[in-house]
Design a protein that fits this description.
The complex is a heterodimer. Chain A is an all-alpha fold. Chain A is 74% helix and 0% strand. Chain B is globular and about 50 Å long. Chain B is 35% helix and 25% strand. The longest helix of chain B is centred in the C-terminal third of the chain and has 16 residues. Chain B is of the alpha/beta class. Classes of the chains: A mainly alpha, B alpha/beta.
Chain lengths: 255, 260
């Protein structure tokens, strides 16, 4: 699989470029739309939590945006990627072509959007008169872990969606519920202690908390928690590759 | 030297009933999420052997559903055979109807993507681009979205790309019937030229005339089996004789479980 990815690296590049261009084609604001999403979220949530509910968290806007930015990369990739095999059906069955390329495209194009949003995150840090410390060096590690985790989840969802299209209906709902269930717009301390292990079992949570630590609290992330996520991601990835390889040949019969 | 050697190749598919929009609900009700919903198989290709000498052209003939497209996909390595082996000397390119074009992308963008899928590098595509557009005669339509193309235009572009890849083995699945006569003649000229350079072609068609005129050997598939294989004239004669007697016989039947 790695070998075929190397073989199709130019195709991957081209498809990611097309995906990004197509998304912004014909829209006057272009990339600003991608940026507008976290900005609007930030505005509404800050209003609700700082003004309506008086949650009393200092610099709530920064707190929210720090975990929101990686979350948007994750959730957009999963939503777009789940249908990627079906959306790319015209490329399947025509050549000895590796369908895994199709799964990688949304992960990478959303990663580009994510990377373009990171400067916005720094801007909010500056506006909040917060400081970012040495812990920023873990950012590449966080990005790598999230990349593997996202791809691992997609190997499952994209494969099964070919056979059970219900999944593409379920995923947006699941993503919305997940957003409320994990500490992105509220701190982990708001979750009752008894429930915390269940929340922490979700591998994405370690990533969200790490971003809050780095960008909001100017602290090191919890490395045990991150190691758990990295390990989970790798195991899921290995199983995902096995499942994908097992079923990819039958895609042509169902598309 | 043989460009293609297929020995006792079989490929079977799980029988997929009515447009299979499986739902979770259905599967749970039948407790079948982890079980196979159907245990019937279709042997799309059944113990087929043949060899194609380098620099020659093989014509594959047969009724709808006789396994022609499956055979082409096996040759293109889209499918792996369940049993038997296929040996191919060199690179293959498959050209079939509905080749992988994205309807919303322009012809130009699709040339690039198809070329990459077929294994060209960006530089190679760039150097061949003018030639591709010229051969396709699409002119300024190359910058229009492919969804606005007619079937003929679509095919012209697809053929131009496939031939420009310059594979060792070119697999043509029922594609020459669609273009107009002038373009078909142009393609034919290109294929002859291709053959003279020692390249090999496998052509699927319903048209016996094409096989008689172009091919060096012919393979007649029926129910996935090689009914006849040999000189074009005798295979076509046999096929025509059988066609008269087919009547209303069903095309294919799904078999009971069989070991791959």
């Amino acid at each position: 699989m790695i070998l075929s990815l190397y073989r199709y690296r130019w195709l991957l590049y081209e498809l990611v470029l097309r995906d990004l261009m197509q998304r912004y084609r014909g829209s006057a604001l272009g990339f600003l739309w991608t940026l507008l999403n976290p900005v609007l979220f930030m505005g509404v949530y800050t209003l609700v939590f700082s003004v309506y509910l008086r949650a009393g968290m200092e610099h709530y806007a920064l707190f929210l945006v720090s975990a929101m930015v990686p979350w948007l990369w994750f959730s957009s990739s999963i939503q777009q990627g789940t249908t990627s095999i079906i959306d790319g059906r015209m490329y399947i069955g025509k050549a000895a072509f590796a369908p895994v390329v199709l799964i990688l495209v949304p992960v990478l194009s959303n990663m580009v959007n994510f990377l373009l949003t990171v400067p916005f995150l720094f801007l909010i840090v500056a506006l909040s008169h917060h400081k970012i410390g040495i812990s920023l060096v873990v950012l590449p590690v966080l990005i790598t872990i999230q990349f593997v985790l996202t791809l691992a989840v997609l190997l499952f969802t994209a494969t099964f969606n070919v056979f059970y299209r219900d999944l593409q209906q379920l995923i947006p709902i699941a993503m919305l519920l997940l957003f409320y269930l994990i500490p992105i717009f509220y701190p982990l301390s708001s979750v009752p202690a008894a429930l915390r292990p269940f929340i922490l079992a979700n591998p994405f949570v370690a990533i969200a908390l790490a971003y809050q630590n780095v960008f909001y609290a100017n602290a090191w992330p919890d490395f045990y928690l991150l190691a758990y996520t990295a390990l989970t991601a790798l195991v899921l990835f290995a199983i995902g590759v096995a499942i994908f390889t097992r079923y990819e040949e039958t895609f042509t019969e169902y598309l | 030297m043989n460009a293609i050697t297929a020995s006792n190749v079989s490929k079977q598919f799980r029988y997929v009933g009515i447009p299979k929009q499986t739902t979770f609900k259905e599967s749970i009700v039948r407790l079948q999420i982890f079980r196979r919903p159907e245990n019937r198989y279709v042997r799309a290709i059944d113990d087929v052997s043949f060899a194609v000498e380098q620099g020659t052209m093989l014509g594959v003939i047969g009724r709808n559903g006789s396994g022609k497209t499956t055979l082409m996909r096996l040759l293109a390595r889209v499918y792996r055979p369940n049993t038997g082996t296929i040996k191919i000397n060199g690179q293959t390119t498959l050209l079939s109807l509905g080749v992988g074009f994205h309807p919303d992308f322009t012809g130009r963008e699709n040339v690039k993507i198809s070329g990459l899928i077929l294994g060209l590098t960006p530089r190679e595509i760039q150097s061949k681009f003018a030639e591709i557009v010229e051969f396709s005669e699409l002119g300024e339509f190359i910058d229009a979205p492919v969804r606005t193309y007619s079937t003929g235009m679509y095919l012209r572009l697809a053929f131009s790309i496939a031939i420009s890849v310059d594979p060792d083995v070119l697999l043509l699945d029922e594609v020459l019937a669609v273009g107009d006569e002038a373009f078909a003649a142009k393609c034919f000229g290109r294929i002859q030229q291709f053959k003279r350079r020692g390249k090999t072609i496998v052509l699927v068609t319903h048209d016996a005339q094409t096989i008689l005129a172009w091919c060096d050997s012919a393979l007649w598939l029926e129910h996935g089996k090689a009914r006849m294989y040999g000189a074009p004239a005798s295979v076509v004669a046999g096929y025509h004789a059988a066609l008269a007697g087919y009547g209303d016989e069903p095309l294919l039947e799904a078999a009971t479980p069989e070991q791959a």
